[in-house]
Sequence to fold (136 residues):
Amino acid sequence: MKFVFLCDANYLKGDLVNFVNNFPTNHELVTMTSDDLLQSKSIFEGTFAVLAERSTWQKNFSLFRYFGLLPLLEVLPLGVVSRSRKSEPLKGRSQNRNQEIYFNPSASAEELYLQVDKFVAAPPAGFSYPRGSAKV
Fold:
């Protein structure tokens, strides 16, 4: 399965580099920055799910909404890669609070393998982002 890891370059250091290096080899992980996503307005074909680094998502959610990328992100399961032990909701996904799957970037290769297999076996349900009301 192909996964896209949405992570800006300034956050891709330390345990997030270990997350990329420890990702199970039976799956493909492609790193994409928010700028790449905003410029291409597409995600690689054949992608099973998006794994979003929490700070990257929080910082760029409004841009994703403004440039119309939310419908693209709705059709793929979303996993959250977060250093935080708290599972606070992501911007735009507060109603989905208890259904998010969190990945710890400092997990060992074995722990990460088990988490990814669990995610593949039972991905989170689809999600529709609120669009707000259009002013007439």
Summary: Helices lie at 15-22, 34-40, 54-66, 70-74, 109-121.
